[in-house]
Design brief:
The protein is an alpha+beta fold. The chain contains 24 helices and 22 strands. The strands form 4 sheets. Strands 5, 6, 7, 8, 13, 14, 15, 16, 17 and 18 form a 10-stranded mixed beta sheet that branches. Strands 3, 4, 9, 10, 11, 12, 19 and 20 form an 8-stranded mixed beta sheet that branches. The chain has a two-stranded antiparallel ribbon with strand order 1-2. Strand 15 and strand 16 form a beta hairpin.
Length: 704
């Protein structure tokens, strides 16, 4: 059976996915509320399947099970996609480097994994075209002998994909490569090879799988922790069998039992902790590896062309990809301890920046201050516990059934979540004699895909009066459900746009998405800034600025007290500070930062500072800045000015001292800090006082 599918870029692709049987279960028009889901969990006498884990694989298992007609429940102790599934490279790919290893080592297992992943890549682009699309990736070549070597490898990648190849790879001359990727290092460049893989919005894709499962009838609940597994003695064998789990609502503390014929452990890096709930003596099968990514401004890469560095200084692979109008660079591969809150280290951030510098033109200054966000994700690699080298480990998955009947799915990768879920449910049916039909998830459209088209955003602009950028964002995030968000968007009171108040000026996220996000089971401010919107992953400072308004809207929807709002703000700021790279960013400028300016620069910056500190106090306050701005007819509200000074007020005494200002300018010169509003403001004021020309000042995306 062959079907033709339309990709996000409007092109057509043939799909040879096996035609799955139609799903006979009715799909609800709307997903149930979280309260309804909790009632279903508590009041159902026994489920066929209980899935532990709300990442891509867990939600995939729930969707697979419920569409086969099995009574299905899923619990997740945090939010859907709160772990590894939201912290990926955002690629849907077969794995070029795995194919290289398969060929070099004649490893059929690696080859089979690549073949399966390429099949799943085609399916994922088909079932969620609004959230995914093909992305050309350039592999620059700097030695003549590498050109045929890489060309053969990439052509084999196309060949393995067969009719599911997104677009055929091709070779570029040096001049054409620089035309398409002008910021590329041109010295010694021989040419380049371009191949295609898929890209997606990972957290939103994960959520779409969860919401689709909920609409088919699965009882799915986030912030529901498994306290321990329930067991009963099998009368036939006399052995203890897992028969459910004792669960706790993390938000209220309420505990209850969920009974099930089969329990599935799909907890990613936490696989072994659930296995030890079943059997304390069991040996570990998961060896976690940390992968750090950084986000930089969009001008670091072309709008629609990624870059692959196939051999970094330590043998790892680095991707440099456009995503959500920003640039993602990563990843690292380091053995780590399992933690629910992985933190990106300054060492990893600088490693990625160093590798990026090697591939970009010397005309492009790669600055530490341009890192807008950074995160670490833990890959749940399956390995022998004695193995030390995580880079040589295949990301293939295993399905294991314990003596007590606990089904564990471990390993694998984002792209193959659906086939992993199919293998898991097949194993569960066989191990527990469940009555169910064949898998039906091949070609099964996810939430938002049914009536989506590449031109859907135009209707949003025409029917609701949304900005074009906002409409495109809503269409690519919610698919055909974008109209539900547009319907609740507030009137702006402006001539244009008519509706849709932005949360922050430089991103297309609007306030209505916060209201809608609560319907999508968002329970905390962190859920909203990191997984319903992706602000935290794109710019931690912008996310921080949006938090008060986000919490106000959520507070109204969820009836939060003032104390609860305060707790949410503190929790979200802590998340941004530690897990999204704000700490590493803020440490680039501290009260102990060294001043390395030459004497002439120190004199120049002192003169600029004293234009504001007219009384020679040695520090400037909001009143000093306001006074200068008023003299040149620039008006900035007091709250904004307070924020601007607070960014540089290192000892937090409500004023910026001369030494702090010199530390700031020194950090900017070294590239450690960029986008300082105070530095831009003072430079602008100095020029205005000379020329009396008014220049507006916004938060800059770059440095000076």
């Amino acid at each position: 059976f062959t079907r033709v599918i339309k990709l996000r870029d409007g092109s057509l692709q043939k799909s040879d996915n096996d035609s799955a049987e139609p799903v006979n279960i009715p799909m609800k028009n709307h997903f149930p509320t979280r309260e309804d889901q909790f009632l279903a969990l508590q009041n159902t006498s026994e489920f066929d399947v209980l899935v532990i884990g709300g990442g891509a694989t867990g939600c995939g298992c729930a969707l697979d099970a419920v569409t086969r007609g099995l009574k299905t429940a899923l619990v997740e102790r945090d939010d859907f996609s709160s772990g590894t599934s939201s912290r990926s490279t955002k690629l849907i790919h077969g794995g070029v480097r795995y194919l290289q290893k398969a060929i070099m080592r004649l490893d059929f297992e690696q080859y089979r994994m690549v073949k399966e992943a390429l099949h799943e890549r085609a399916n994922l682009l088909e079932i969620a075209p609004h959230l995914s699309g093909p992305l050309p990736i350039m592999l620059p070549v700097y030695k003549w002998w590498q050109l045929p070597y890489y060309w053969v490898g990439i052509k084999l990648y196309d060949l393995v994909a067969g009719s599911q190849c997104l677009k055929s790879s091709y070779v570029l001359s040096k001049s054409r490569a620089l035309e398409l990727f002008p910021m590329l290092q041109k010295d010694r460049l021989v040419g380049a090879i371009v191949y295609y893989d898929g890209q997606h919005n990972d957290a939103r894709m994960n959520l779409a799988i969860a919401l689709t499962a909920a609409r088919y009838g699965a009882a799915t609940a986030n912030y529901t922790e498994v306290v321990h597994l329930l067991k009963k003695t099998d009368p036939k064998s006399g052995k203890e069998r897992v028969c459910g789990a004792r669960c706790r609502d993390v938000l209220t503390g309420q505990e209850f039992d969920v009974k099930a014929k089969c329990v599935i452990n799909a907890t990613g890096p936490f696989t072994d902790s659930v296995r030890k709930m079943d059997d304390q003596e069991v040996s570990n099968i998961c060896q976690p590896s940390a992968g750090v990514h950084i986000v930089m401004p969009g001008y670091y890469s072309p709008d629609n062309m990624g870059l692959l560095d196939p051999a970094t200084s330590d043998g790892r692979v680095i991707f440099f990809l456009p995503w959500e109008k920003m640039t993602i660079a990563g990843t690292t591969d380091t053995p780590t301890e399992v933690t629910p809150h992985p933190i990106p280290t300054e060492e990893d951030i600088n490693f990625i920046l160093t590798e990026v510098r090697n591939y970009l033109s010397c005309d492009v200054e790669v600055r530490r201050g341009d890192v807008l966000a950074a995160w670490s994700g833990i890959r749940p690699l399956v390995t022998d516990p004695s193995s030390k080298d995580t880079q040589s480990i295949s990301r293939n998955h295993i399905v294991a059934v314990s003596d007590s009947g606990l089904v564990t799915i471990a390993g694998g990768k984002w792209t193959t979540y659906r086939s992993m879920a199919q293998d898991t449910i097949d194993a569960a049916i066989q191990a527990h004699n469940l009555k169910a039909g064949p898998c039906k998830t091949v070609g099964l459209l996810l939430q938002g895909a049914k009536d989506w088209s590449p031109t859907l955003y135009i209707r949003l602009v025409q029917d609701y009066g949304l900005e074009s950028e906002v409409a495109q964002h809503l269409a690519s995030t919610y698919g055909d459900k974008a109209f539900e968000v547009a319907k609740i968007a507030q009137v702006t009171g402006k001539r244009w746009p008519i509706v849709g108040k932005r949360l922050v000026s430089e991103f297309p996220y609007i306030e209505a998405e916060i209201t809608y996000g609560v319907k999508e089971y968002a329970c905390t401010a962190v859920d909203m800034i990191s997984r319903r919107t992706r602000l935290a992953f794109l710019n931690v400072q912008a996310a921080d600025e949006a938090l008060p308004r986000i919490i106000d809207i959520m507070g109204k929807e969820l009836h939060w007290s003032e104390q609860k709002k305060k707790e949410e703000l503190e929790s979200a700021k802590k998340f941004l500070y530690y897990e999204m790279g704000y700490k590493a960013k803020s440490e680039q400028l501290t009260d102990s930062s060294e001043i390395t300016l030459i004497p002439s620069d120190i004199d120049r910056y002192k003169k600029r500072f004293h234009m504001f500190d007219k009384e020679k106090k040695g520090f400037i306050t909001i009143l000093d800045v306001q006074s200068v701005l008023e003299s040149i007819s620039i008006q900035i509200d007091e709250n904004t000015l307070h924020e601007i000074l607070n960014e540089v007020d290192l000892n937090k005494n409500g004023q910026v001292e001369l030494n702090e200002f010199l530390q700031l300018m020194s950090a900017i010169q070294k590239g450690y800090v960029s986008g300082s509003r105070l530095a831009v403001l003072m430079k602008t004021a100095e020029e205005n006082l000379r020329e009396r020309v008014v220049i507006p000042v916004d938060r800059s995306g770059g440095g000076l």
